[in-house]
User: Which sequence fits this backbone?
């Protein structure tokens, strides 16, 4: 029973962190890290492609395809990120008066969970499209990079 409770708490923490990361990414898509408006979504992903392309030794054609895949994904991600941002604004007020409202909290959590589910599906679609552009060797390198990122994220 104690182990089940620990797993449940860990899952809840991961869910909260995932929502926080997604909200941060949504905010970064509108502003640079210094609070200044940047080129947003496309600038962030262009920098990502440039960084990853060096490590994976992508060809110019692969870079172009990857940039197009990310550009094509923007209209699918942006409305979801906006909806998530709106539900986050709603959740800020919950409990701020010192009173916990279980029903409202459950409603906001359910809306956020549905949006996060859709975001994760879109992320996987985009990832699969990006991986389809890579050679088998590059795919293995990319998987290693992702695993390294996850391991370092825990620290």
Assistant:
């Amino acid at each position: 029973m104690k182990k089940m409770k620990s797993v449940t708490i860990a899952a809840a923490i991961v869910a909260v962190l995932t929502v926080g990361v997604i909200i941060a990414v949504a905010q970064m898509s509108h502003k640079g890290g210094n609070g200044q408006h940047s080129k947003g979504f496309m600038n962030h992903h262009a920098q990502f492609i440039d960084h990853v392309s060096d490590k994976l030794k992508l060809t110019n054609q692969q870079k172009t395809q990857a940039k197009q895949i990310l550009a094509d994904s923007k209209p699918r991600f942006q409305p979801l990120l906006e909806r998530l941002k709106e539900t986050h604004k709603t959740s800020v007020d919950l409990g701020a008066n010192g009173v916990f409202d279980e029903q409202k909290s459950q409603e906001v959590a359910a809306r956020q969970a549905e949006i996060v589910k859709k975001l994760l599906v879109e992320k996987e679609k985009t990832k699969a499209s990006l991986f389809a552009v890579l050679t088998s060797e590059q795919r293995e390198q990319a998987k290693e990079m992702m695993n390294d990122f996850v391991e370092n994220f825990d620290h």
